[in-house]
Design brief:
CATH superfamily of chain A: Class I glutamine amidotransferase (GATase) domain
Largest sheet of chain A: 9 strands, mixed
CATH class of chain A: Alpha Beta
Strand order of the largest sheet of chain A: 2-1-3-4-11-10-9-6-7
Oligomer: heterodimer
Radius of gyration of chain B: 26 Å
Helix content of chain A: 10-25%
CATH architecture of the domain at 580-752 in chain B: Alpha-Beta Complex
CATH class of the domain at 580-752 in chain B: Alpha Beta
Radius of gyration of chain A: 16 Å
C-alpha cells in the first residue's frame, strides 16, 4: 500500500505525514508539486504548512500546482485524498471540498490540543472511528475559520459531509464548529487539526494516562488502508 | 546604475574629500586608522564596509578582550565533544552515533523596539541562517524575552508585535518553538530584549565551514533580492543608544519573508547533500560587506566581485547601499566551476534567484568592481577580523555597596502567606505564558518530546535510537544587578539544572550577553565581572561555551538595563523516551525536596513582588553540588524511579509546587515541618527562598527505599515533603488552594493586559 505525500514549496508537515503513513503500516511516497506523476500511489495526503507563503490566500497558489491536476483527476475516480490544514485549504481552493477558510476569529495563530467529535465514520479516512467518538488532535493554524454560504452549510450538514466538529472550544470561529468536511463520495476529506501529530507515543497530545501519549490520529491512516483493502 | 561611484582611483586622487564617517557610526580615530591601512582615503564603498564591519555589533571591539577567556579557560574534557567552537557561525557538538547538534543564541533587541514584529521575526530568521550555514537542518527555536513593565502603555505594542513576529516567522519555517522565558521589568521599557535561539542537527560528515577556498571557485549570491531594507542597521542601530527626540530609525529595520527562508533552508540542504557547494555563508548584519570579507578572510584571502551582478529589488540602489543592505533570506556560496551547473539546477528547482558575482582569487585582496570600475580594494582581514579592539575604562560602581547592604532579610516575613503565594503566582514574571506560547507551533517535525511549560525543551534527533537533545535558557537580571558575577553563575546554574531535570546531560553553553553602553565604565565593570565568572564557571562545570553574541548599548538615555546574560545550556539524552516530566501525573507518589534551603530572599521574586524591593546579595551557587544533583537525577532516571522533576528557581518552593500541580492537574498535600527544623528556617523562607541546588521530584511509593538509598549514597540532602493527591495544593497548616483558583491566579495576568489567551 503506497500513500503519497505531496511537498509544495513551503510545506512543513510533509515529513510528519510520511512518518504517520509509515506508523500506520503503509509505504509513504514523497511527491513533488511540480511533477505530473503520482508514482502509482493508492492514496494522497496534502500536508500542512504555508505553501507559497500563503500569499494571495492560504492554499490558493498551491491548488494550481502542476500535480494538482492529477490529484483532482484521481479524486474524481475515487482515490482517497486527505488534506490537513494547509492541505484542507488547497482542497477547498481546488473545489474538491466545499467551503473556504479565512483568518481565525481572534486573528492570531493558535496551537492547542483540540478535542473534536467524529460526525461521520464512513469516509475513507474515518472508517476506523465510531460515529460520535471524541478524539484529541493537535491544531495549529492562522487561517482556519471554516466559512460557507448558508445553502452550502445546509447541504453538507444534510449530506453528512461534516466529518468533524470542534468540542469545548471553537478555536477559530468556524461556522457550526466545523473542523473537517468530506466530499459527497467520502473519499476526499479535509480538516484543520493535524492527525499526523497524534500518531506516535511520546510525541502527541497529553492524555489522562501519560504525557504526550495521544495517538488518536493514527486511525485516519489505518482507515485509508482499510478502505483501499476493502476495494 | 550609479554613475557617480567613488572609485579607488578617484579616492587616491582626492585625499582631501570630506567623508561622512561620523554619520556611519565611525569615530575619528577609527576613520584615520582606515586611511592608514589603505594608505589613502577609503572610497565611499570601502567606508561603508569598514563602518558596518567595525561597528560594535559586528566587530566585538569592546568585548573581544574579555571573550578570549572562553577560549582560554578550557579543559581537555570540554574539548572532547566539541567539533566546532567559538568564532564560527555556530558551535557544533558531537552527540554520538554520528550525529552532531549545533546551536546558538543571538540578540535582535534594538530592531524589536523600533518595529517589534519585523524586528523579532528577522531575529529568528538570522539565527536560523547561522544554523543552516553549518550544514545543519534547523530543528527547533526558543526565545528569551524581556519587556518593560507590564502596566506601561507601550508594553502591549511590543509584546503583541514581538510575539506575533516570532510566531509568524518560526511557524512559517516549520520549526517547533520548544520554550524560552519572558520577564517584565521597567528597566527594559525602551529597550526590550529579544534573544532568539536556534538548534540544528547534522551528520558528522555534513559539517561545513564558511570559507572561500580554491582559486577560481565561484562566489554565488542566492535567495531573496537585495533591497533597501536594513541599510546601516548594523552600524547605526545596534551600536548607538536610543536618544529622545532623535530621528526615527524605522527604515533601518529589516523586513522578513519566512516563505523565502523556508525554501532557502530546503535548497541549501539539498545543495549540501549533493555536495555542490564548498561552503555557504549567511548574510546577516552588514550583508554583502560581511559575507565577502569574512569568506575571504577565512579562506585563501582573495576575492573578486562584480557588484552590479547583484539582483536588486530596487534598481536605484547605490553601490554603497548594496554593500550595506541587510535584506533578509540571502546566502552566499562558494562553488567549484565544474559544479556550477548542478548548483543552478537545484536553485532552479526551488525557484531561488541566483547570480554569480565573482570568484576566489590568490591576490590576498578583496576587490569589488561596479560596472567595470574598482570601488573596493582591501585586505579582507582588515575589514572582517583585525578591526579595532578597545580596552574600555572599567570602574567599580560604588552604588552597588549600598544596594548590597540593603538586604531583603530585614523585610517583614509576617504577611498572609496564602495571599503572598497567589500574588507571586499571578505576578507578571511567574504567571503562565501560554498567551505567548499558544501562538507558537510546538508540534511540527514530530520530534518534540518536551516544551513549554516544561523546564527545558527536548527534541528527538534520531528516530531509530531515540537520541535527542534538551535545551534551556535562563537569566535573572535582578540578581545580575546586585552582583553581576554571581548573577551570571546563577543563570548558568539554573539553565544547567533545567536541562538536568529533563533527564539530559548538559554538554555545552551558548550565551547572549545583553548590557548597557560599553562607553559607560560601570557597565564595562558589570560586563567584565560577568564574562570572567561565566568562563570560570564553565571550566568548573566542564562544559564549553560554543558561541553566542554580545549586545551592548541596551539603554535609554543614560540608564542601562540590568546586566542580562542569557545562558543557554544544551544537553544530550540517549533516548528521549526516558525524559522526565516536569509535573505530577499520578496520585499517591511521594514528593521529595532535594537540596537545602537557606534564608536567601535577596533579589527574589518574593522581595520584588511583595515588597517592591531589590537589594542585598543573591543566593550562592555551588557548582559541585549542582553537578552532584544532576548526577543523582540521572542515576534515579536510569533506575526508572523518578516520576517527575522540577527545578526550584524564581518564586522558590511555592512556585515549583504550584507549577507541578498545574502541569497535569494532579494536586498535592505538602508539609514543611521537617524542613523547617532541619534547615532552621521559617515558613516564609521555606516557601519563597531561592536557594540553588534544589529540585522537587516525585517518586512512586514502591521505589521509595531505593530513592532514599540513592540520595544517601550520594550524600545529597533530601526531605520528604508531601504526597501527590487530589487536585488542590494543600500546604499543611499554611494554606490550601483548589485547582481552579490556582489556574485562575496563574493565567489571569497576561490576559488582563494583552487580551484573551487564544483557545483557552
Amino acid at each position: 500500500m503506497k500513500i503519497g505525500v505531496i511537498t509544495f514549496p513551503g510545506s512543513l508537515d510533509d515529513r510528519d505525514a510520511q512518518r504517520a503513513v509509515r506508523l500506520a503500516g503503509a509505504t509513504p511516497v514523497a511527491l513533488w508539486h511540480g511533477d505530473h506523476d503520482l508514482q502509482g500511489v493508492d492514496a494522497i495526503v496534502l500536508p500542512g504548512g504555508f505553501s507559497y507563503g500563503d500569499y494571495l490566500r492560504a492554499g490558493a497558489i498551491a491548488s494550481h500546482s502542476p500535480i494538482m491536476a492529477e490529484v483532482i483527476d484521481a479524486a474524481s475516480k475515487g482515490m482517497p485524498v486527505l488534506g490537513i490544514c494547509n492541505g484542507f485549504q488547497m482542497l477547498a481552493e481546488a473545489r474538491l471540498l466545499p467551503g473556504a477558510h479565512t483568518r481565525n476569529g481572534h486573528q492570531q495563530f493558535i496551537c492547542r490540543d483540540q478535542k473534536m467529535r467524529v460526525e461521520n465514520a464512513s469516509t475513507d479516512w474515518t472508517n476506523g472511528y465510531a460515529e460520535g467518538q471524541e478524539i484529541v488532535i493537535p491544531l495549529k493554524n492562522a487561517d482556519g475559520r471554516f466559512v460557507a454560504d448558508a445553502e452550502t452549510i445546509t447541504r453538507i450538514e444534510g449530506n453528512g459531509q461534516v466529518v468533524f466538529r470542534y468540542l469545548d472550544v471553537n478555536p477559530n470561529a468556524s461556522i457550526n464548529d466545523i473542523a473537517g468536511v468530506a466530499n459527497e463520495r467520502g473519499n476526499v476529506v479535509g480538516l484543520m487539526p493535524h492527525p499526523e501529530h497524534a500518531t506516535e507515543l511520546g510525541f502527541g497530545p497529553d492524555t489522562a494516562d501519560a504525557m504526550r501519549s495521544g495517538t488518536d490520529g493514527l486511525a485516519f491512516f489505518t482507515s485509508a488502508i482499510a478502505a483501499l483493502t476493502r476495494v | 546604475m550609479n554613475p557617480g561611484a567613488d572609485t579607488v582611483q578617484n579616492a587616491a586622487a582626492t585625499p582631501e574629500k570630506e567623508q561622512p564617517y561620523d554619520a556611519l557610526g565611525l569615530k575619528e580615530d577609527e576613520y584615520l586608522k582606515i586611511r592608514e591601512i589603505l594608505g589613502r582615503r577609503p572610497t565611499s564603498g570601502e567606508l561603508a564596509m569598514y563602518s558596518v564591519m567595525w561597528s560594535e555589533h559586528c566587530s566585538y571591539k569592546s568585548s573581544k578582550n574579555y571573550l578570549r577567556q572562553f577560549g582560554q579557560k578550557v579543559s581537555p574534557a570540554m574539548k572532547k565533544n566539541l567539533m566546532v567552537g567559538m568564532g564560527e557561525n555556530a558551535g557544533v557538538v558531537d552527540v554520538g552515533n554520528g550525529w552532531a547538534v549545533t546551536f546558538k543564541i543571538e540578540s535582535h533587541n534594538h530592531p524589536s523596539y523600533i518595529e517589534p514584529f519585523q524586528g523579532a521575526a528577522t531575529g529568528v530568521g538570522g539565527i536560523v541562517r547561522d544554523i543552516i550555514s553549518m550544514g545543519a537542518r534547523p530543528v527547533a527555536v526558543m526565545d528569551a524575552l524581556r519587556f518593560g513593565a507590564i502596566d506601561n502603555d507601550d508594553t502591549p505594542r511590543v509584546v503583541h508585535g514581538v510575539t506575533s513576529g516570532i510566531s509568524f516567522y518560526a511557524n512559517c519555517l516549520g520549526l517547533p518553538n520548544i520554550g524560552g522565558e519572558t520577564y517584565f521589568d521597567s528597566v527594559y521599557q525602551a529597550n526590550p530584549l529579544v534573544n532568539a535561539l536556534a538548534v540544528g542537527v547534522l551528520r558528522h560528515e555534513d559539517l561545513h565551514l564558511a570559507n572561500a577556498r580554491g582559486v577560481g571557485n565561484k562566489v554565488v549570491l542566492f535567495g531573496a533580492r537585495t533591497g533597501g531594507d536594513g541599510i546601516g542597521g548594523a552600524s547605526i542601530l545596534a551600536s548607538d543608544s536610543f536618544s529622545e527626540g532623535g530621528p526615527t530609525k524605522r527604515p533601518a529595520v529589516q523586513v522578513g519573508d519566512p516563505f523565502a527562508e523556508k525554501v532557502l533552508i530546503e535548497c541549501c540542504l539539498e545543495l549540501f547533500a549533493q555536495k555542490l557547494v564548498e561552503g555557504i555563508q549567511d548574510l546577516g548584519a552588514a550583508g554583502i560587506s560581511c559575507a565577502t570579507s569574512e569568506l575571504a578572510s577565512n579562506g585563501d584571502g582573495g576575492m573578486f566581485i562584480e557588484l552590479e551582478k547583484v539582483l536588486l529589488r530596487d534598481p536605484s540602489l547605490t553601490a554603497e547601499e548594496i554593500l550595506m543592505s541587510e535584506s533578509q533570506e540571502r546566502m552566499m556560496a562558494i562553488v567549484r566551476p565544474e559544479k556550477l551547473d548542478g548548483f543552478l539546477e537545484v536553485v532552479k528547482k526551488w525557484d531561488v534567484e541566483t547570480s554569480v558575482l565573482g570568484e576566489v582569487t590568490d591576490t590576498g585582496r578583496l576587490i569589488i568592481n561596479w560596472h567595470g570600475e574598482e570601488i573596493v580594494n582591501v585586505e579582507p582581514r582588515t575589514v572582517a577580523i583585525d578591526g579595532p579592539v578597545y580596552d574600555r575604562p572599567v570602574v567599580y560602581p560604588t552604588w552597588i555597596d549600598a544596594l548590597q547592604a540593603d538586604s531583603a532579610s530585614g523585610l517583614s516575613r509576617d504577611g498572609d502567606l496564602r495571599e503572598q503565594f497567589l500574588a507571586l503566582l499571578s505576578s507578571p514574571n511567574l504567571s503562565d505564558k501560554s498567551w505567548i506560547t499558544n501562538q507558537y507551533d510546538k508540534y511540527v517535525m514530530g520530534n518534540t518530546a518536551l516544551s513549554y511549560p516544561d523546564d527545558g525543551g527536548m527534541v528527538r534527533v534520531d528516530e531509530e535510537s531515540g537520541l535527542g537533545f534538551a535545551v534551556a535558557t535562563d537569566a535573572n537580571g535582578r540578581y545580575c544587578q546586585l552582583d553581576p558575577a554571581m548573577g551570571a553563575r546563577l543563570a548558568l546554574a539554573e539553565a544547567f539544572r533545567n536541562v538536568a531535570v529533563t533527564g539530559a546531560t548538559p554538554v555545552a553553553v551558548s550565551d547572549c550577553l545583553n548590557f548597557g553602553s560599553p562607553e559607560n565604565p560601570e557597565v564595562m565593570w558589570q560586563f567584565s565581572k560577568t564574562v570572567e565568572a561565566l568562563a570560570d564557571a564553565c571550566l568548573e562545570l566542564e562544559i564549553p561555551v560554543t558561541g553566542g553574541n554580545v549586545s551592548f548599548y541596551n539603554q535609554t538615555g543614560d540608564v542601562p538595563i540590568h546586566p542580562t546574560p542569557v545562558i543557554a545550556v544544551l544537553g544530550t539524552i540517549d533516548d528521549v523516551s526516558k525524559r522526565i516530566p516536569s509535573g505530577w501525573q499520578d496520585e499517591g507518589n511521594n514528593i521529595y525536596l532535594l537540596g537545602t534551603t537557606a534564608l536567601e530572599l535577596d533579589g527574589s521574586a518574593w522581595a520584588g513582588t511583595i515588597h517592591d524591593h531589590l537589594g542585598g546579595t543573591p543566593p550562592v551557587v555551588d557548582f559541585a553540588a549542582e553537578q552532584r544533583l544532576a548526577a543523582l537525577i540521572q542515576a534515579g532516571n536510569e533506575q526508572n524511579i523518578i516520576a517527575s522533576a522540577h527545578d526550584l528557581a524564581d518564586g522558590g518552593l511555592a512556585q515549583a509546587l504550584a507549577e507541578s500541580v498545574l502541569r497535569f492537574g494532579v494536586g498535592a498535600r505538602v508539609w514543611l515541618g521537617d524542613l523547617l527544623e532541619r534547615d532552621g528556617i521559617d515558613v516564609t523562607t521555606a516557601l519563597f527562598s531561592e536557594s540553588t541546588g534544589r529540585v522537587i521530584v516525585s517518586v512512586p511509593r514502591e521505589d521509595d527505599v531505593r530513592f532514599q538509598g540513592l540520595c544517601e549514597g550520594r550524600g545529597y540532602p533530601v526531605a520528604r515533603i508531601g504526597v501527590t493527591d487530589g487536585s488542590s495544593l494543600e500546604v499543611q497548616d499554611v494554606f490550601t488552594v483548589n485547582a481552579d483558583e490556582l489556574r485562575h491566579a496563574h493565567t489571569r495576568t497576561m490576559q488582563e493586559y494583552f487580551g484573551a489567551v487564544v483557545g483557552a
